[in-house]
Amino acid sequence: MPTQEKAEAIDQLAEQLSRAKLAILTDYRGLSVTGLQGLRATLRPLNAEFKIAKNTLTRIASEKAGIEGLTPMLEGPLALVLAYDDVVAPSKAISDFARTSRILTIKGGVLENSIVTAREIEDLATLPSRDELLGKLLGVINSPIQGLVNVLSGPSRGFVQVLNAYAEKQGAAAESAA
Questions:
Q1: Which of 77, 110, 113, 157 stands the most exposed, by the fewest C-beta atoms within 10 Å?
Q2: What's the predicted TM-score (pTM) here?
Q3: In which order are the strands placed within the sheet that holds 22-27?
Q4: For 81, which DSSP code?
């Protein structure tokens, strides 16, 4: 039977896991305190957090949150990256940190209650961010409208150019007659 303190930690972790859209399991062995603080500072504006957790408590909390299949990844020192909003930006941040530090390793994770491998998290990190995707979508939506505006304004623009050319011709003829 877990102690009251452990039961509260399990409940808190289960709540965080169920609320998170993405949970990345990492091995942080050898990472300095300064490195941990830097990583936490990078994740904070992305509405994500870096949390060190015990394997047993994580296993119990994941079962309580309805997540199955994490047990094979619960080996050695464990830290979780919990992303609550956008899943791409935190996965990019943790992938970049793992690549530059060469100490932190990604074990795998949970994306919307589905187990994902470390390779799938790397693939997720290569996707454009939500803002970039929304910008591209807006461009795709705006493109036909912009084309329609150009097509509809073409005849009137041409008519104005013809009138302008005729006025210049009349003006040139008047000057030569004078």
A1: 157
A2: 0.71
A3: 48-52, 79-83, 22-27, 105-111, 114-117
A4: E
Question: Three-state SS for 70?
Answer: coil
Q: Which of 20, 21, 22, 24 shows the shortest CA–CA distance to 96?
A: 24
Cβ-contact 53, 70 below 8 angstroms: no
Question: What is the DSSP-derived secondary structure letter of residue 65?
Answer: T
Instruction: Give the DSSP letter string of 88-155.
Output: HHHHHHHHHHHHHHSS-EEEEEEETTEEEEHHHHHHHHTSPPHHHHHHHHHHHHHHHHHHHHHHHHHH
Residue reference for tokens 């209650």: 113
The pLDDT tens digits for 132-177 are 888 888 888 877 877 777 777 777 777 778 778 888 888 777 777 6
The C-alpha atoms of residue 75 and residue 126 are separated, in whole angstroms, by: 27
Per-residue pLDDT tens over the stretch 2-11: 688 888 989 9
